């Protein structure tokens, strides 16, 4: 090999070494910022988890309150701080996201098969999904109204006229200790022959685990003045009752023995 060729190789080797050195310097410069970004993302993720945990804790606290007080007490509770109502529904949506099928969607499908002229009273409407999903006239009722289409009231004392509705819906909303007064109100606002639909968490009707006997529950509602049409227990998460209002109420009706519905409480983590 000639001396010229050797010199060329030496220059090339030096150039390669300089490139490697520059590359290593660049790596040293960029790696700290990458580490900071990773730490930042990790910190952000941790904060998000903490916020979700705190939000979940508030939801469980409010949820327990609603299941263990009267409707009037719940109304006053949210009137004192309506923000709690928003907190509750955010937690409720998170819980519902884990359900393979939501009862409100089953009820909406059923309503779409009925006469669109039917007037619906949605007791405990939440985000008023029924009103947003059907052509029917829907009176959306709940404890707090953040929507001009939602009527804020006690479910036992609504502003609806007697015999003004064709369908009354309770979708996971028989929460108060005086739940029977909600059903009495539904009877008042329904027309003779009107439908009463009740969707509730299945565990509330499991007698083996402290829940109410579904037959005793249906019997109590029948004594109120309804006829039981069917009970749908096909879903693993909830049970759906269908009743119709009888044409005439028995004037000598005896006192109804309402079964105690098991509160649907979520475990603290």
Brief account:
By secondary structure, this protein is of the alpha/beta class. The chain is built from seven helices and seven strands; from the N terminus they run H-H-H-H-E-H-E-E-E-H-E-H-E-E. The protein has a seven-stranded mixed sheet, with helices on both faces.
Secondary structure layout plus pairing:
Layout: H1 3-67, H2 71-80, H3 83-96, H4 103-112, E1 119-123, H5 129-133, E2 137-142, E3 150-152, E4 165-171, H6 179-189, E5 190-201, H7 214-224, E6 226-232, E7 238-245
Parallel strand pairs: 1-2, 1-4, 2-3, 4-5
Antiparallel strand pairs: 5-7, 6-7
Helix pairs in contact: 1-3
Query: Major β-sheet, in short?
Result: 7 strands, mixed
Distance between the termini: 77 Å
Low-confidence stretches: 1-40, 49-54
| Largest beta sheet: strand ordering | 3-2-1-4-5-7-6
Question: Which percent range describes the beta-strand content?
Answer: 15-25%
Helical content band: 40-55%
The number of strands is: 7
- Which class of secondary structure composition applies to the elements? alpha/beta
**Rg estimate, integer Å:** 30 Å
What features would you describe in this structure?
The protein is of the alpha/beta class and 269 residues long. The radius of gyration is 30 Å and the shape is globular. Strand 1, helix 5 and strand 2 (137-142) form a beta-alpha-beta unit. It has a seven-stranded mixed sheet with strand order 3-2-1-4-5-7-6, sandwiched between helices. The termini are far apart. The model is unreliable at 1-40 and 49-54 (pLDDT under 50). The protein has helices at residues 3-67, 71-80, 83-96, 103-112, 129-133, 179-189, 214-224, and strands spanning 119-123, 137-142, 150-152, 165-171, 190-201, 226-232, 238-245. It has seven helices and seven strands, in the order H-H-H-H-E-H-E-E-E-H-E-H-E-E. Helix 1 (3-67) packs across helix 3 (83-96).
């Amino acid at each position: 090999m000639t001396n010229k060729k050797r010199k060329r190789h030496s220059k090339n080797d030096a150039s390669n070494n300089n490139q490697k050195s520059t590359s290593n310097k660049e790596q040293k410069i960029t790696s700290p910022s990458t580490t900071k970004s990773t730490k930042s993302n990790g910190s952000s993720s941790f904060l998000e988890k903490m916020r979700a945990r705190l939000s979940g804790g508030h939801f469980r606290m409010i949820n327990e309150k609603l299941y263990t007080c009267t409707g009037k007490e719940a109304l006053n509770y949210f009137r004192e701080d309506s923000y709690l109502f928003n907190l509750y529904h955010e937690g409720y949506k998170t819980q519902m996201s884990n359900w393979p099928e939501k009862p409100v969607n089953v009820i909406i499908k059923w309503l779409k098969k009925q006469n669109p002229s039917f007037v619906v009273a949605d007791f405990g409407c939440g985000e008023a999904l029924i009103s947003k999903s059907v052509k029917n006239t829907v009176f959306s009722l709940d404890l707090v109204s953040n929507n001009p289409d939602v009527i804020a009231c006690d479910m036992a004392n609504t502003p609806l006229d007697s015999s003004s509705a064709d369908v009354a819906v309770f979708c996971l909303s028989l929460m108060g200790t005086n739940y029977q007064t909600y059903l009495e109100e539904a009877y008042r606002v329904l027309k003779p022959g009107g439908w009463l639909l009740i969707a509730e968490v299945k565990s509330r009707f499991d007698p083996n685990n402290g829940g109410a006997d579904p037959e005793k529950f249906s019997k109590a509602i029948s004594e109120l003045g309804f006829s039981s049409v069917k009970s749908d227990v096909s879903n693993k998460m909830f049970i759906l009752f269908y009743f119709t209002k009888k044409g005439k109420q028995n004037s000598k009706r005896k006192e109804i023995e309402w079964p105690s519905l098991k509160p649907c409480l979520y475990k603290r983590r």
